[in-house]
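Human: You know discrete backbone vocabularies at least as well as I do. Show me how you would write down a chain together with its backbone fold. No explanation is needed for now; the record alone will do.

Assistant:
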Amino acid sequence: MTTTLSVNSIPPASAPLREDSIIMALVGLSHASSHFSHLLLPLMFPIFMKEFGWTFTDLGMMSSLFFVVSGAGQACSGFVVDRFGARPILFAALGLFALACLIASVANSYPAMMLVAVLAGLGNCAFHPLDFTILNQRISSARLGYAFSVHGLTGSLGWAVAPLFMGVMSTVFGWRSAYTAASFLYLLILALMVFNRDKLLTSTVKRQVNLPRSHDMAFMRLPVVWWCFCFFLLSTVTLAVVQNFSLPILQALHQVSFEAATLTLTAYMLCSALGVLVGGVVASRFPFRSDRIVASSMCGGAMLLAVCASGWLGALGTMAVLAATGFAVGIGGPSRDLMIKKATPPGATGRMYGLVYSGFDVGFAVSPLVFGAFMDRGWYSATLACAAAVLMLSVGVALGVGRNTGPVQAG
């Protein structure tokens, strides 16, 4: 099968800086809203345990459902984005987030909150395919490294803002009002995207009707696709531990307050954002060493997390090192996205990013189930130690991506 594109999918060699900047900002806000959704449920776990009596395993199931739905949807959404364009999918996703938050604000049972997880997971599933489709098609080639840096930076900022926003709103007005406010926030972002819809237009892939659909899946035969998938899965297992369980781990091991633990998670995300900012410069200067940069970043993060697991540094030291772990891992973010771009066949941007980033969701789905059981048994240090070991495994996989990647593809 051959495909044709309605417009040229190769990024323009140059475009006005203002045009590129607006697109980067819109896509960045899109990515931040996606990452914000990852913490909508985990941040309320301590409150849910007190109010409803749910266990860590119950809460882990809830978080896993979100990412199972997101992962399954993400693997398929890339095809939808390639076929219909990124813009309508973005609008639908933001609407689903708003609906999920509204339902959460009135939920009174475990099934109701599981419905919230399903709706939010459906909303989250398309963001990486649609974001990278917009960036690869609309941003000048010379600025792509910086665009990926902004994309990663804003994602980390979405994670960082979520604890502050939900924490403050729930403390002052109650957790139900926090979800209501989050729903209005998503509607506000949706209105902004609709207002700037001309900046979000992307090409679509048109199939020749006389050719088999099996060719749409041909990219899946490339070994590098599955190396990339495995990298995202492994590295995300560790991130999921930090997001879902760092608060109760810090409270259990070092008797820190809920507020201090929440601020530590925010510091981790802010440091990750700073790392991504630095990583954007590194990725732009050394684009052909992306796999080595990613491997070094993950290795540093794993070692710092192992120090946190040891408990040697006490409460303040552990909180500081945990935040520094975010910086180490964040440096590899832009190089990671360039690493994926190198492996992407022409015309398959949405499909490639959809499948590869579904490993992100699989990691988020598996991790709470496994480590939720650890937490219920009181294995707090072991949870962090195992997360560090898994992150170290991703180092070898990143180098494997580099070995299996051919010449840079335009996608």
